[in-house]
Amino acid sequence: PAQPRDRLRVAVQKSGRLGDPARELLASCGLTWRESRDRLFLYGESLPIDILLVRDDDIPGLIADGVCDLGVVGRNVLVEHHLERGAAGRPASLREWRQLGWGACRLDVAIPEGDEWTGPAQLAGLRIATSYPQTLGRWLRENGVEAHPVVLNGSVEIAPRLGQADVVCDLVSTGGTLRANGLVPVTTILESEAVIAGPDHHLEDGRQEIADLLLRRLDGAVQLRE
Ligand code: PRP
Ligand code: ZN
Ligand code: MG
């Protein structure tokens, strides 16, 4: 069980697409902070809310384990976590507390430029590099296709050039990363945006009240942007 805490802890991506906008959003809620020496922990000064900077893929696990209370994360990461738990026979323990309306991206299958795309059946027997094996696996099953996922935690887009995979299944935001690697998205398997993730139960030790205050300010800040 997690240690009792009377300060709210929010997990944010340390680098990548969602990190800076997430910190800006929290700053627009009136949060100010002091950085730790290693810059991975932001100690909240104006409110008892601290920020932990981590890999986005680690955010669901940190919340599920009670190490963090909330997280700003792409729905894609949350969906993958749910499917992974489901595959292990464990129930979901997280839910989306808010949808933020930014950070839109798609999880797409992409193939080498110049190759023809005739549909999912064409992927049968191919090696598909991805960081989202569960989400990809569900889509392959739904389409009755048997392929070989190659799980990579980063630089998925260079796997075909390295001869490590035939195609990829990766996140696409502007499309720049795929283009730069000679890959073309051909089909979307999940639509995503930034969300506030949290546990599917109330927080303890007074942290729910702090979270409610933060969410009220967040709702105000999100409305102001619309
Ligand atoms: C995703 C994906 C690509 C990039 C694509 O990474 O893995 O690296 O975004 O964006 P683009 O279409 O605008 O080029 P993400 O920011 O989710 O971080 P991570 O890969 O480090 O988890
Ligand atoms: Zn990631
Ligand atoms: Mg990336």
From TrEMBL:
It comes from the Bacteria. GO terms for molecular function: ATP binding; ATP phosphoribosyltransferase activity; magnesium ion binding. Keywords: Amino-acid biosynthesis, ATP-binding, Cytoplasm, Glycosyltransferase, Histidine biosynthesis, Magnesium, Metal-binding, Nucleotide-binding, Transferase. Its cofactor is Mg(2+). Its EC number is 2.4.2.17. Feedback inhibited by histidine. It catalyses: 1-(5-phospho-beta-D-ribosyl)-ATP + diphosphate = 5-phospho-alpha-D-ribose 1-diphosphate + ATP. It is found in: Cytoplasm. It is an enzyme of class 2 (transferase). GO terms for biological process: L-histidine biosynthetic process. GO terms for cellular component: cytoplasm. Residues 55-215 form the ATP phosphoribosyltransferase catalytic domain. Signal peptide: none annotated. Pathway: Amino-acid biosynthesis; L-histidine biosynthesis; L-histidine from 5-phospho-alpha-D-ribose 1-diphosphate: step 1/9. Catalyzes the condensation of ATP and 5-phosphoribose 1-diphosphate to form N'-(5'-phosphoribosyl)-ATP (PR-ATP). Has a crucial role in the pathway because the rate of histidine biosynthesis seems to be controlled primarily by regulation of HisG enzymatic activity. Belongs to the ATP phosphoribosyltransferase family. Short subfamily. Belongs to the ATP phosphoribosyltransferase family. Long subfamily. This is ATP phosphoribosyltransferase. The gene is hisG. The chain holds residues 4 to 229 of 302 of the full protein.
